[in-house]
Each structure stands twice: as structure tokens, then as C-alpha cells.
Here is the input.
Amino acid sequence: MWLVLCESTDAPARWAREGLRSRGLEPVELVTSDDLAHARWVHRVGEEGARVEVALRDGRTFRSDSVRGTLNRLVYPPRGDLLLIHPSDRSYVVQELMAFFMSWLCALPGPLLNPPSPECLCGRARPLAEWLWLAARAGLSGPPCRVSSDELPAAPSLNVRVPGSGPDLRTLIVVGERVVGTPAPPAIGDACRRLAALAHTPLLGLEFSTGPGESWQLVGAGGLPDLRRGGEALLDALAASLSDGRGAGA
Amino acid sequence: MIFLCGIPSEPSLGLVIERLREMGAPHVVFHQRRFADAHLEIDVAGGSVQGTLELDGARHRLEDFVAIYTRLMEWRLLPEVESEPPDSPARRHCEKLHAALMQWHELAPGRVLNRSAEIGVSYSKPMQLQMIRRHGFSVPETLVTNDPDEVRAFCRRHGRVVYKSASSVRSIVTLVEEKEAGRLEAVRACPVLFQQYVAGINLRVHTVGRRAFATSIEASAVDYRYAYLAGEEEVLAEAGLCESLAGRCAGLAAAFGLEFAGIDLIVTDGGDVYCLEVNPSPAFSYYELHTGQPISRAVGEYLAAGS
Here is the structure.
């Protein structure tokens, strides 16, 4: 079994699920954040490793030993459960749910695209300056960036973009060891792979502006790209990554 | 130059400042409660990180700092902020300054004890246990569930069982006894972490780079940090650590990306070693002040060697 975990409004995730099925991955279970609300959870960690059993309200169940790979686009734990909680305990419960969700996601065997962080269940919400700094280490050019204690920081987001980048951007999506999207020079593709590795983000969307002389400048990055922009090639890469284990999260 | 931040009267930070003074190591302290007088600019270009930090009227170049030790507390809880209205200029400045500081700590070259990305691994105890186990330590059998029947079966299987928070929110580790068993239905509201109780000697191992300092803690309380609540006293003493275990602890901290860590171990009567947790921001002063172990000295030397 493969899992596609997502928010209920995540159209790219539904598109990816159909694409994976058409490529022979069966069964592919789509499980939304709403589906996970009020589920029965049993998660064990010990000498035999980590396991999870989930029984959803709709009757579906899954156990970690039957999972072969996961496309993870969950952002937060389901909010539905919070309605049961006394308001004075909600902040604590939010943190407990986040900690629990991080752990069971990491207990799933096989590739996990993408692994969770304390900021977001499908990866780190890095500020733009950190993406540009990592990109430079990976060999990608980007505009200079200033962070100041005079400016209110942008709200944490999984996908960030340089303000005023314009509409004509080229999109590349890294899926494990593969890079799909706009045709790009090999050196750019290699640098994108290095950036995904440095960022521990095996499924990574990147946006570039191209100036005179075809110089590629990174202007956007994030772990929750619109998968549809990668087209059929992305589905091929995703199916391969989820099947062969490449791109497994940290 | 070394940068330290937090509230200097906080014992762990205070000890490191004292050691750096004794060593004559150049350093700058950002007193978190004096945020109003602080200003930070960071320029990121082509992989380089430069900028300026203004503190109490003095201006410092970021590129002159070779190491950072951070003991920042949650800025919203600072006394100077708590009473401020939601949109007051002071509150906004405090928020902006801390956001910039956090970004600098992520981007700064050199030694940073510890970066927030690494601190993040402590956010989930069960996730951390998975990583600890992968690095060769035994871990207690652990169950996180919202099914009371699973908890009952787990208690029957393991006999003595404790429960505690799954997140990094501090909680008192408590045995599941008659009172707790009577309200297990409450777990249906949110998965709760239950863990096999492992009897033995508590060992706190502080690792600073490759160095390790072990402290044994004898206490009859299940959670020795709160022994005083039961009118009991814990006894702390410097403990010997064999080279192999010291190396494994330093290796575990390094695998977590932590240059400074507090590792909680239990050594059973049979000599088995269980690892309970890796603390990425250890309040080491509690152990140093009880035993005289030179942990702050090691931290100071580690920071100073960053240059």
C-alpha cells in the first residue's frame, strides 16, 4: 500500500494519487487531515522498532507494516480533535498532537516525501534568507537578501518567493534523485538535487527567473509545490521514487 | 568574539559568562530583557552572511562572531513584554528582533550551541526515541495511543508504566497507579505517551563536542527533578563513564547535530543502558552546582576554540 496524506482541499495531491495508480501503484490510499480526525491510534516504539496502526472513522485501517511509501502533504494535525478539548488545555494538546503526528509519520516504512518538522508536518517552513543561503551552498545563484529587526518577518510558510519576482518563472521540482519541470542546464539540475539534500526535503519545488545570458536565479522554494506543474514527468518520478526507496526522508 | 544571549541571571548562562571572563575570552552578552536597545541587520549574499548587531549603543560586525551560545527564553513571556498591548511598538520590536536573531543563529558560520533546526528533534519524544534506537541505544517500550484498552494491555504486559508528555512541553513523569488507571478513558481525547518503567540509576551525560561529563542521580522519586514535591532529596554525584559509553554518547549527540547536549540514561542493575532522551538545550547548572563538574568550563573552552 502507498499513502497520499494531504489536506482535504489539496487538488494536486488528488491528481498525484490518480497518476500513481495509473502507473501501477496499487493500492494508493488518499487520507486527508479530516479523515485522520477522531481516528483510533496505536503507535509503538521499542526494541523491535516503531509501528503504527490507524483505524479511521470511515472504517479504513492501515498498519505501518503494509505501507511501502508515502507522499506526505499534511500541514497540521487535524483540528477536529481539538473541539473535544477544554479551551485551557488546547495549546498543550496542539503541541502533543504535533509531536505524536511527527513520530508516526517517521514510523512509516519506505520513502517519505516529505518528512515532518516541528513547524509543519510535511517539512520545514524556512524563511527566504535561509533558502537563498542554502541555495548558494548548493551552487545556485539568487538575489541578495536582507533580514532586519526593523521589519516584521513574513509568516512562516512552506513555499516562499522573492517579492516582486514577476510571473514568468521557470519551475523545477526535485523528486528524490530526479529533477523535472522546465528544461534546464545539467549544472542547474545537479545544484537543485544538492539543495534538496542540504534541505532534507526530497520533494522540493524551485522557481527561477532567467535573465540575460540565460543566467538562472533562484527566486522561490518550498516543500509543498503544485505537483501538477511537473506534469507526467513528475508522476513518473514520483512513482519511481515511492517504489524504489530513493528520496526517503531523514 | 563569542555571542551569548539570554538572561544572565539564569544559572547556566551565568556560569558560562563567568568562565569566559576567567578565561579572558572576548564575548558579548545580549541581555534578553534589554531587547529595546538591540538592533540586528543580516545581509545574505552568495552564501556569505554579514551584518551588524547593535547592543547598548555598541556596534558589532556579525562576521566577527565565531561562536554563539543561546539560552533565549520565549520572548512573549518576558516581563517587559507580557504587560504590553498586542500591537505596542515594544512588543512588535521584540518579535522582530527575536525573529532576526533566530535566523542569524541558523545562518551563522562557526559554533552555535545549538541551532533551532537541531533543537527541533526534541519536539517529539517518540520520534526522538526512534532516532536514539537507530543509533544503537536501547529504549524503553513506549506506547502512544488514544485507546484505553491498549493502555490497559500495555500496563498488564509491563507492570510498572509511566506516562509523560509526548512533546517538549515539560511534564512530571508519573507512574500509572490506581488513580490514573481509573481515568484512562480520558486518553480518547488525545493520544498519550506511556512508557515501560525502567528501574536503575539515572545518569545525565552532558556532551560538549567530543567531551562527556556523567552525573549519577539517586532518588526514590520516579522523576528526580521533582523529588522535592514529595519531600524527598536527590543525591547527585560525578560518575565514571567508560570510554565506550562516553564515545557512544558523543556520537549520539553528533548524530542529532548537537554540539552540546544533555543525554538521559538509565543503567539497570544488570548493566543494561537505556536512553530516555536527548536534551538539546540542557540546563546543566543543576548538575554542575551539585557536583562541581567543569561543564561550564568545557562549554566556554568549546566556544572559545571556535576562533
Q: What stands out?
A: The longest helix of chain A spans residues 90-106. Confidence is low (pLDDT under 50) at residues 246-250 of chain A. Chain A is about 30% helix and 25% strand.
